[in-house]
Structures are given as structure tokens and as C-alpha cells.
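Q: Could you write out the predicted structure for this multi-component system? I'm mainly interested in how the pieces pack against one another.
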Amino acid sequence: MSFSEMTTREAFTLTKQKMVEYQTELLERLNAIEVDAHWFRRVFHTFAASFLFYYLLPDQSWIHIGKIAVPIIIVVVMGVVEYRRLHGDIDHQRFFGLRGYEKRRPASYLYFGVAVLLLFLFFPQQIAVPCILCASFTDPVIGESRYYLGKKKAYLIGFLVSVLFFGLTWYRADWWIIIVISLLGATGAVVGEAKKLRLIDDDFLIQILPAIMVLVLWQGCLLLGIDILPPLMILPLR
Amino acid sequence: MKKDDTRKETIQKLLLRLELWFAPILILVPFFVSFFFLWDWYTRGFSAGSSVYDGELLLGLLTLMGNLMFDIPFLRSIRTLSKKE
């Protein structure tokens, strides 16, 4: 039957049916993308553990300059991209896996990048490594556990995982230092993850908060004449 | 309206393609890094009888296991999505 042969009611019903079909299909597509974005975000986190390769790079003068300049350039480029996105020059939809609330503020990958940059440039390797591991693994572990076990158990699991990371990376320190650093670092990581601030992302806090806490303790002990920092975990290639 | 819908659909497809392009990097780079840590521990540490490099063994294993844990569901989700598409 062509449109000219239809009554108004039939045309209306047919149009409505077509719209419902289209809406259902679109919703299915959006759901599929959302599921995928979820795992995409998780894998982006675990991928960040690869940044530890940075500490294997040799310390020769020209490489040393690169070790400072390249991370700064990468973060500056990320900042420019985010600036353009927030000013509407780049379509928000072109960024896969962004959350709804990231439409009006810098995306979490920028916070993540800035935190890693600060750790690389201003913190000793012994402090930076467990913090990067926490951002890479504790964050997605808490995210997944929260979904299945609820908030409290998720943070407890996150705390234990962080204790493991700090304990393993400081394994060459004295036993009492390992205990203190593990508890302090894990507390910082979980508080950083749990604290939801409007302007500062948890990807930043989960790295910087434990790093600052451990740094303060290390400096405090240095003032007392005790160096608690263990030997380097990753030795640069020659 | 029609033009807008087509544009949105194109952007969605582009995003999916972009994600599929990213997938090998997100999966292979951490594996490369973890195997490099393990190899470095073996050549500079284990073979030379030095325990100074044991930290790299730990980091290699942590990176490898942590990534495996999340890569499998990620790959599964991509497969499911490809089938739906």
C-alpha cells in the first residue's frame, strides 16, 4: 500500500512503528558502545603500567634531556587537545570512552598524564613506581569489585591490592618500613580513589596523594637522620 | 534531521574503528614491557647471579598478570561488538 492510499491514522501508526524500530536499534547500538567503553577504560588504566619502562631508559646526557622533555611535550599536547575540546573546536563524540561529566571539564586521561609527569620529574623512583601501579591496577580493581561486591568491600580489596604493591616495591627496605609504607601508601591510594572532587579527578589523586604522604614521611625521617628509601628497583640500561 | 543522524552514525562507526585500532597497542605494549622486564632480569640479574634485578622480575610479573586480567574481558567485549555490528 502506498502512502497516498493510506488513511491518516494508518500513516501515523506506520510512522510511529518505524520510529520505535529506529529508536530500539539506536539504543542497542549505544548500549553496545557503552559496554565496550567500560572495558576500554579499564584496559587504558592497565596499559599505564607500561610507563614504568621509562625507568629502564639509560641516563646518558641526551637521553636524560629526552626523559624530561618528551613527557612534558606529551602532556602539553594532551592539554591543548583538551582545551580545544572544551572550547568546542573538537567534537566531544570523537573521544571514545569519555564519561558524561567529562563534557564540561578536562578528561581523566589528562589528569592521569599530569600525575605521571609529576611522579617522573619530582619523586624518586621508589615512590613513583607503586603509585603508578595503584593507578594502573587498584583503580580498575576497585571499579570492578564495586560493581559486584559493593563500595565497602571494593575499597577493602583496593586497600589490600595497594598494600601488596607498596610492600612488593619496597621489599628491600627494613620490615618495619615496609609495614609503615604499605599502610600509609595504600591509605593514600584508597582515599585518593574514593574522594570525588568536582575539579580534580581520582586518576590524579590516586597517584599524587600516596606519593606526597610517603615523600613527607621520607623527608621527615631524613631530618631525624634515618634514610628509609630502599635501593632502586629498576636500574637503567647502559 | 536525516543529515544529523547520518553524521552521528558515521561518528559512531569512526569511534568503533578507532577503538579497534587502539586495541593492539593497548594489549601488546604492556606485554612487550613486561617481557622486557623479565628478559632484563634474566640477562643482567639471574644469569649473572645478582639479586639487584629481582625488582624487575616482580614488576614484569605484576604487569603481565594485571594486564591479562583485564585484556581478556576487553577482547571478549570487542568480539561481541564486532558480531553485533
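A: Regarding packing and overall arrangement: DSSP finds seven helices and no strands in chain A.
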